[in-house]
Amino acid sequence: MEKFENLLTRHKSDFERVEKNMDRNKILPLLPGLLEWTKDINWPIAPSVMELQSDNVNV
Asked: CA-CA distance, 20 to 7, in Å (whole number)?
């Protein structure tokens, strides 16, 4: 079983983890952690995290 914690971003410029192709089953358990990175829209990673989340809405 894959550890979902290994998919979470670790710093505000961790684009590598956000840009991985993640399906809905991987996103759902990560939502609380991903939301942490959208607290400040000025963080470089925030727009990518928001896009990742929006890509998986109503899937």
From this structure: 8
